[in-house]
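Ticket #4471: structure export looks truncated?
Reporter: QA, pipeline team
Priority: medium

Steps to reproduce: submit the single chain below to the structure queue and open the exported record.
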Amino acid sequence: MTLSVSSHPAGSGCSNTAFGINHAGAMTGHFEQGPHAATTTSARRGLWPFVRWLTAGTFGLCLLFLLGFAIFASHIGSLAAPKDVRAADAIIVVTGGQSRIDAAVDLLRSGKGKRLLISGVNPMAKREDLRAATGGDRGLFACCVDIDHAALDTIGNAEESAKWVRGHAYDSVILVTNNYHMPRTMLEMRRLLDHEDLQPYPVVNTRLDGGGWLTKPKALRVLFTEYTKYLAALARGAFPAPATHGNVEVVNARTAN
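Actual output as written to the record:
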């Protein structure tokens, strides 16, 4: 009996056929997906310039924002109370920061203004409380100090102050607030008092000149917050300023405590 042995390994024909079918299927699938893959690649290539410009634009805006902040902070650091204060018709102090009212009362006491408006006072605070806190003279507070309880923020300070200035027909005002708050306060005030002479009197509690703000985390945080608010105030300049007709809601110097 003769035994015939195939030159191919057992089952190799089936394996080759299976591999052939698999290769053909893979090849067929490749050609079927070709147009879709080409479309996807083309779409990605078309999207890339947009992503690149968006990234560059975002980076540029961030860089501009930080550059503006550095300029803003350096400007704040350079502010100081003027040594020679010109006399004005009136003085306005915006509450909210340390030593502001004290500085304003000192200016009134020295005759730099005829009358003082303390704007943004807590409704619970009375005249005697403010006088005692500043050590002011009772007679001075009785004759020449008005208190505004209506203003809740810097915008409100500007609105109530404008009513007060126009109501007294004042032409010149000394504006007192902290140095970091001065740019935004002046911006809001000038929107409503564009014809009056506003003389800034920044109160400095912490020296920030010479780049000192870079080494003071608390000051850096305050400056950064104030910078964003200042930018928002600039954006508000695109809209018409509100009317300031009507009487300012103040506790007049002649009223009771």
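Status: closed, not a bug. The export was complete when the record was re-opened. Leaving a note from the reviewer for reference: The domain at 78-251 is CATH 3.40.50 (Rossmann fold).
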